């Protein structure tokens, strides 16, 4: 058996570079710099695209909760029937019709109607329209609205006081 020896043809043999404290510090700073930079970019994109908030102040919403329960009980005692119809006309405008009747199937006088279309994921797309009274108990209005799923909020008011509120998920044609 023969042995072969390999010699380097370069005049300087490869020398290992020692691992110094400066190199370790540079590697640590580089590593954490990349991690922090990536986190900052992700935080920026997350907060600039969707705030993730359902209400501006959870504390105020919590305090108002008791009033909302009382208003809901008062609304139930009225026994009103409120129907909404939405359709898109030939120009692409969304037409909204609200019909209101009390427990004896008679319309209630002195009401005003406000309809709000709330986008489920982006409050900046919310749209509202005050409806005009076409006949006793019948309110109509029109607005420009993109097709898709929306939360339809109906407010019927008398003298500035909300008498009836309804929130339903609808599909805008």
From TrEMBL:
The keyword Transmembrane applies. It comes from the Bacteria. InterPro entries: FixH, FixH_proteobacterial. The chain crosses the membrane at residues 24-46. Keywords: Membrane, Transmembrane, Transmembrane helix. It holds the Pfam family FixH. This is Nitrogen fixation protein FixH. It comes from Methylocapsa palsarum.
